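Researcher: Quick test of sequence recovery. Tokens follow.
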């Protein structure tokens, strides 16, 4: 167990955590908007060496409030650590979908993952509102099919939106 800020303990976890190069490893990154630094993602992505599969990342991106959080930033160093580049302010003018696609592309291009997909996670009260995207990054050939099946099973239990039927009142004759 490594309590505290994962950004500060990631080196120790990777060094002392007993993660071998060959065993399947998953890292769930459930953060409060800007907590996970880009350098932490880079360390996780680079830990395993080819031909071994990288550590799979399950990264929660909170798009339900991301624009409000970006607008409220007072210290740009926090956003810079999260985004890992000085152009984080460009995100303010982008749609949630554009940001998700940019994050997916950065996981592929900057972190070297072969398969990167974004799975919507809906608000439990407002069923059609996307609150998060779970960004799944892997280089294992079977991972995408497994994640599609798991996500489908998870969202299948979600009640679908039902439109109230219109009442038909025939005109009096």
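Model:
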């Amino acid at each position: 167990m490594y309590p505290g800020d994962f950004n500060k303990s990631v080196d120790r976890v990777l060094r002392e955590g007993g993660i071998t190069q060959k065993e399947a490893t998953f890292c769930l990154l459930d953060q409060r908007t800007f907590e996970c630094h880009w350098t932490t993602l880079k360390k996780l992505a680079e830990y395993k060496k080819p031909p071994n599969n990288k550590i799979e990342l399950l990264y929660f991106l909170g798009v339900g409030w991301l624009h409000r959080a970006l607008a409220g930033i007072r210290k740009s160093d926090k956003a810079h650590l999260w985004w890992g580049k000085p152009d984080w302010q460009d995100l303010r003018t982008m749609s949630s979908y554009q940001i998700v696609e940019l994050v997916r592309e950065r996981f592929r291009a900057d972190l070297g993952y072969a398969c990167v997909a974004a799975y919507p996670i809906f608000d439990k009260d407002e069923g059609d509102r996307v609150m998060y995207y779970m960004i799944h990054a892997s280089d294992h050939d079977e991972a995408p099919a497994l994640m599609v099946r798991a996500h489908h099973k998870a969202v299948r239990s979600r009640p679908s939106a039902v439109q109230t039927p219109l009442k038909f009142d025939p005109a009096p004759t």
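The chain has one domain: 22-156.
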